[in-house]
Amino acid sequence: MKKLVMIALVAVSFVSRAQQHVAQNGLYKSADDFAAGRISHEFDADSKEKIVKYPTFYKGILIKSPGNSMKVDPSEYWGFRDNFKDYRFYKGDKYAVGKEEGFFIYEKTNTSTVQNEMYFSREASGPLYPLTIKDLREAFDDDNAVMTQITAFQTKNNFNEIQQLSSLDVIHIMRTAAE
Fold this sequence. Notes:
The chain is 32% helix and 32% strand.
């Protein structure tokens, strides 16, 4: 009987997850909307609407539909989702967003060097900082566990203060600090 109840609970869990709709494309008006997964102007792959990325001289995006287009001003939106990938507008640029427990990681391709630049923020609405030991220390100076892990990581790996870290380095630091 217990086994039957457990199977039923698992089945209900799968069904409820399957019924949750996740938008493929759309806009986030604010950091709160992003944190809550609330997308405005939502549309999916089978929609006739498409996100058209502008060249680097224009930092926003264009949403095209038959007979109509909507130019998205980055100053009016927090970010957007394109094919299930989230992006944030910050100071006129677009950054791919990755969320970890307690902080956010951002990636931007530098078009002149064709290299990825990594950034982070403590909150979805917070300023972006380069992903360096120096900037991590400044952003988390009020968190003793994180500061201890930053020092341990820096000592073990012989990193200087301004050397760019990878997102995996920072995830390791933050998760170790949380233990």
